[in-house]
Design a protein that fits this description.
Blueprint (H helix, E strand, L loop, with lengths): L11 H29 L21 H15 L4 H13 L16 H13 L5 H12 L29 H4 L1 H11 L2 H18 E2 L4 E2 L19 H14 L8 H20 L20 H16 L5 H17 L27 H16 L1
Antiparallel strand pairs: 1-2
Helix pairs in contact: 1-13, 2-3, 2-4, 2-13, 3-4, 7-8, 9-10, 9-11, 11-12, 11-13, 12-13
Length: about 375
């Protein structure tokens, strides 16, 4: 007499699918770890970065901070213990201090790594220097509008930089404020982050194109074919930022539902702007003759893979987008181990070369590796 298999056993096809996925997940992590270790060995060597500045060399500045944010995701996805140790060592070396400008979103980015570290061995003291900065911002909010005007003294003196008046800021600062609210139970941080997030979105988001202008200087700017200029990495900052913001909001809350809808709306546009080779062009509406560009591509690959894994994006439609992006990213790895084709620090689409690398490009790649391992 034949016995029926227990109903609790998964179908053979499911078991086979899981077995087939395991090597791909490990390969994504292994690729990310190899790049992370390559970069860790060169954190004090900026000779490979074409436009290195004092900011590039700042271990609390945004350029390096994005690398450490990627490291936290890689550690979460199952990387070896040396990845976690490097994050904890970095925070301790920085005395857990954010960068120096209390209102500037870029200087809050490193706090995302500190907040992660506080839950993974560093203890609650790791968030205290950032909490003091955030409390100062809450007690003395900036009172400027979001119009981006560069004074004669230079870009960094633009008054609106005390708020989130450029789209990159939506990756840099809101996840830190929202995680601070979760860890402290103080809802003021969440309220501030969401108020400023929606102010920036209302100002910079173009609903006709489902994309963000980098800042208000680009509202009227057009290319030679009279197309609007939407910077790939700029919108990559946003879509990746949304993927980091959404899990920090209460499921079913009005803000979470609105941001999820925004994420899906942007993802639809990003899907159709991907080039056949898997990359996204530096200017999203101008794909012709565009070079590979790995930083925007990495942010989109991360966000779309995350969206599929979370059930926000339909797998059949979007998983191929993420996989094409990941394939392109692996081709961006150069023979010496670096991540190439990273557009340098800028605020608009520019040319990029095979050997161009940067800390934030590596960080975006690590985010993508972690998301692809879960996909």
């Amino acid at each position: 007499m034949l016995l029926a298999l227990p109903l609790l056993l998964p179908p053979v096809t499911a078991v086979a699918a899981e077995a087939a996925q395991a090597p791909a997940a490990k390969a994504a992590i292994d690729t990310g770890v190899a790049l992370a270790r390559w970069q860790l060995a060169r954190m004090n060597d900026t000779s490979l970065i074409p436009r290195a500045t004092a900011g590039t060399r700042n271990p609390r500045g945004w350029e390096q901070a994005v690398f450490w944010i990627g490291m936290t995701e890689l550690a979460e996805a199952g990387a070896p213990v040396d990845i976690k140790k490097a994050i904890l060592d970095l925070g301790a070396a920085n005395a857990w201090k954010p960068a120096d400008r209390p209102y500037h979103a870029d200087d809050h980015a490193i706090a995302q790594a500190y907040l992660w570290a506080a839950k993974h061995g560093a203890g609650p003291g790791a968030i205290e220097p950032t909490r003091r900065v955030f409390d100062h911002v809450l007690a003395n909010p900036a009172r400027v509008n979001l119009a981006f005007y560069v004074p004669p003294t230079g870009y960094n003196d633009a008054e609106c930089l005390t708020r989130w008046c450029w789209c990159d800021a939506l990756f840099m600062s809101p996840p830190a404020f929202l995680e601070m609210a979760r860890q402290t139970g103080d809802d003021r941080y969440r309220a501030f982050a969401l108020r400023e997030f929606w102010a920036t979105t209302d100002f910079l988001y173009d609903p006709a194109e489902s994309l963000y202008y980098r800042d208000s200087r680009f509202f009227e700017r057009r290319d030679e074919k009279q197309r609007k200029m939407f910077w790939s990495r700029g919108n990559g900052w946003v879509l990746a930022g949304l993927a980091r913001i959404i899990p920090l909001l209460e499921p079913g809350s009005d803000d979470r539902l609105r941001i999820e809808a925004l994420f899906k709306e942007m993802a639809r546009k990003i899907k159709v702007t991907q080039k056949p080779d898997g990359y996204w062009p530096p200017s999203l509406l101008a794909p012709e003759n565009s070079p590979p560009e790995s930083s925007g591509t990495a942010f989109y690959t991360y966000a779309i893979a995350w969206g599929v894994q979370q059930g926000l994006l339909e797998r059949r439609e979007y998983e191929p987008v993420a996989r094409r992006g990941w394939a392109a990213l692996t081709l961006s790895l150069q023979p010496d181990g670096r991540l190439g084709w990273v557009q340098q620090v800028s605020d608009r689409p520019e040319q990029v070369e095979p050997q161009d690398t940067q800390y934030y490009g590596v960080g975006a790649f690590l985010l993508a590796a972690a998301a692809m391992s879960r996909l």
